[in-house]
Amino acid sequence: MPVNLHALAEHHIPQVLEACHDWKELAQHGPPYWRPRSSAELRRKIVDAAGPQLAQAYSFVLADDSQLVGETSIHAIDWRNRVAQVGICIWRPEDRRRGYGRAGAEAAISWALDELGLLRLEAWILATNKASQELFAGLDFAYEGTLTGRYQHGGVRHDVVVYGLTR
């Protein structure tokens, strides 16, 4: 499935807000690094990554030929140690398991390693999100451990597993 990666921009905001309206469905798959609460929050992300200084996070939208299908981000960047986290979110259930996640993650990982010069990437994934664990394991990320009770959703604490890739 062909997918294009675009830096988050002003004209994406209405589509992103519409796609992310079902927070309950999205929240069960992972921490809310992405799910925007408002257009102002998305605009802050755009401004924060606009430079000229290096940003702490870069957000991208994923598009197929007809619509936006998800996002990927390089975030929690530690420039001193050249380490960051990578995330992927395919917004609608009907768009999942169609190759968008893999294509988006591959593009973001390549960009982070080659363009930003990062040396290590981590994927923090809910222990119950087996699809994302399989995705990152298939991208040569290694399981490194579990953060017990790291994420709270619906009044319940959930474990987060960490996968890492070191160049």
TrEMBL record:
Gene3D superfamilies associated with the record: 3.40.630.30
Annotated protein name in UniProt: Acyl-coa n-acyltransferase
GO annotation, cellular component aspect: cytoplasm
Alphabetized InterPro entries for the sequence: Acyl_CoA_acyltransferase, GNAT_dom, Ribosomal_N-acetyltransferase
Pfam families: Acetyltransf_3
UniProt entry keywords in alphabetical sequence: Acyltransferase, Transferase
Top-level lineage group: Bacteria
Transmembrane feature ranges: none
Organism of origin: Actinomyces glycerinitolerans
Domain N-acetyltransferase, first and last residues per copy: 3-167
One GO MF term: protein-N-terminal-alanine acetyltransferase activity
